[in-house]
Design goal:
92 residues, mainly alpha, single chain
Length: 92
């Protein structure tokens, strides 16, 4: 079982109403915004973002981050490592 932590935010009522008026689910929007900013800052990995948001797959998280403009940090070296891993697994 995953342990969770509750976070309580206090906003001036007029600000909360303004933000809530443009968002169907203000708490979810706040959580997603927090996850995106933490990912962009390098505080969270894509895996941790997916865990935080309850995503069911890596692809769901990648799609979410892409829509948020927070592209995955996947380098040419990462690709080479993935190709080598696939070669080793296929060989053996």
């Amino acid at each position: 079982m995953v342990r969770t932590m509750d976070v309580l935010l206090h906003l001036p009522e007029d600000i909360g109403e303004k933000l809530g008026a443009s968002r169907e689910n203000l708490p979810r929007w706040a959580l997603e915004s927090w996850a995106v900013e933490a990912y962009k800052a390098g505080v969270l990995t894509a895996f941790e973002v997916g865990k935080m948001l309850g995503h069911s797959s890596r692809w769901e998280t990648e799609d979410f981050l892409k829509r948020a403009g927070a592209y995955l940090d996947y380098t040419v070296d990462d690709l080479a490592q993935d190709v080598e891993t696939l070669r080793r697994r296929a060989a053996g």
